[in-house]
Every structure is written in structure tokens, then in C-alpha cells.
């Protein structure tokens, strides 16, 4: 197990009881510990560099005084900077003025899109919405059935291609799903799309075509928090290839420290909106920047 950042800072400052400003040597020692801890949490190197520079700048300007010892003071600065990069406030879903609100999911195969689609539908239903799921992932053999099974579990209607017609046109399925939702008065439509194993141009084009066809109010990029350093390249490729409004982090029940959240938020400027943390449909919540900052620190 790695030492936590809070522990690292506490030991750096052990014995240091100075008043007044932190010395330059103290700041350098602190910066080193922060850098190591963030790299261990799989934060991308350019993000680590910017972050450490920002914390150093603030630490230089602050008086060591009052109730906080130097270690606590630096932890407070680090925490505030983390929360700021992670978007500050929790980003809420934007609903369409005229229903249905269309939410499209995009991401790599295995990221957890299909699972997430059902979780999000259940979450919306619990808030009094009437969501519909649309199975437009016709690439992965089991994706349609998986969405139907999960939809049933969540008690949510699923729009899927006709049985035996699984190799159909995903753009037509997506468009048909949104039309059906409008007709049947569902107020939110969640469109699951085909993932890709790598950054496949053809599937990226398909996701763009679906986006153009259904004009989503929100495109959510779904990413596995466990992919660590690869998260930034993947997030950037989807931003360029499909475009999205916000990010959903999945598999936060694993031992990932949350570096992916920080890297993606900083490098793409897109907020993380939801966090998925298990295989059960209820293992899902809004993303809270302050909680994630705590996880990265601890
Ligand atoms: P898709 O290819 O993006 O649609 O991914 P799936 O929804 O099929 O998920 C891939 C695998 O990850 C499945 O075995 C899911 O049960 C699992 N999975 C999805 N979300 C989570 C999560 O938050 N935590 C864990 N532990 N597993 C998850």
C-alpha cells in the first residue's frame, strides 16, 4: 500500500513548528511529496506538473498561523486545488426545455456503458422521471440482451431492434428510439452506443452519426477509472472524434485512487458528472468533487 498524501506531508513536516511563512526548502520538500503521491494515483504527468506549480505558488504566499500546523495548511491548499480542478460544484444534468431529454453514451468497449445506462435510468426513475433505454450498440453480440435484462431489472422500457435483426443500422435504431419515446411520453431517453476496443475510426464515425441523428442534450463519455494513464488519451480521442459534455467514471469500487478523474477534468476541461461504483444497479451517484479530492488525498 502506498503512503497517503496526508501521511507523506505529515512526515515531511514532522518537527517543523515554525511560525511565519514556509521556507523555500519546506515548500520544495512538500512539492516532492505531492508529486510522488499524485503520480502513484496515476495522475498524468503534465497535470501533476501544473498542479504542483499551483500549490507551490499558493504555499509561498500563505502565512503559517492560526489553528493549522504547516502540514494541515498545505493539505488544505492541496484539497482546495483538487476540488477546483475537479469542477468545484457537482455538475447537474441539463434537461431539454421540450421533452424528451436525449442522453447519449459513448466510450470504449468494457468501460461500463451498458451497465451505466441501466443505472442512470433507475436513478432517473427514482427521481420521478420516465426514462427509456435505447439499445443502439449493435456491435457487441450481447449488448442488446444485456440492456434488455438490466432494463427489466430497473423497471424501465427498452427500445431495441427487432429480434433477428441485430446487425441493423444503429443510427436508425437510435432515431427510432427517440421517436418512440416522444410518442409514448417518456421524458428522458438514454442511448447506449457501440464501444470500441481501441480507438477505432469507423466506430467513432458511427457514434458521430448517431449524435447527429438524435441531437442529444447531453453526450456522456463513459470511462473506466482503472485505466489510469490511458484515460487522458482515450478521453481526448473521444472529445475530438465524437465530442461530449461531461464524463462518467466507472469501476470506482476498484482500487483506483482517482487519478483518471483529475487528469481528464484538467486536460479536457469537461466535468465529471456521475460516478459508478459496482455491478449492482444502485451502485451509482452524482460525482462529488470534494469526495474525490478526499480520495486522492487519502
Ligand atoms: P460496455 O461494453 O461499455 O457496455 O461495458 P459493460 O456495461 O458491459 O461493462 C463491462 C463489465 O464491467 C461488465 O462485466 C460489468 O458488470 C462491469 N462493470 C460495469 N460497471 C462497473 C462498476 O462500476 N464496477 C465494477 N466492479 N464493474 C463494473
Automatic annotation (TrEMBL):
Question: According to its record, what are the GO cellular component terms?
Answer: signal recognition particle
Q: Where in the cell is it found?
A: Cytoplasm
UniProt entry tagged with the keyword Membrane: no
EC number(s) stated in the UniProt entry for this protein: 3.6.5.4
One GO molecular function term of this record is: 7S RNA binding
Keywords (A to Z) from UniProt:
Cytoplasm, GTP-binding, Hydrolase, Nucleotide-binding, Ribonucleoprotein, RNA-binding, Signal recognition particle
Quickly give the catalysed reaction: GTP + H2O = GDP + phosphate + H(+)
Q: Where is the SRP54-type proteins GTP-binding domain?
A: 271-284
The UniProt entry's GO biological process terms, in alphabetical order, are: SRP-dependent cotranslational protein targeting to membrane
Q: Which residue ranges does UniProt annotate as crossing the membrane?
A: none
Main EC class the enzyme belongs to = hydrolase
Positions of GTP binding = 107-114, 192-196, 250-253
Protein family according to the UniProt entry: Belongs to the GTP-binding SRP family. SRP54 subfamily.
Describe the task this protein carries out: Involved in targeting and insertion of nascent membrane proteins into the cytoplasmic membrane. Binds to the hydrophobic signal sequence of the ribosome-nascent chain (RNC) as it emerges from the ribosomes. The SRP-RNC complex is then targeted to the cytoplasmic membrane where it interacts with the SRP receptor FtsY.
Q: What is known of its domains?
A: Composed of three domains: the N-terminal N domain, which is responsible for interactions with the ribosome, the central G domain, which binds GTP, and the C-terminal M domain, which binds the RNA and the signal sequence of the RNC.
- Assembly: Part of the signal recognition particle protein translocation system, which is composed of SRP and FtsY.
Q: What is this protein called?
A: Signal recognition particle protein
Q: Which gene encodes it?
A: ffh
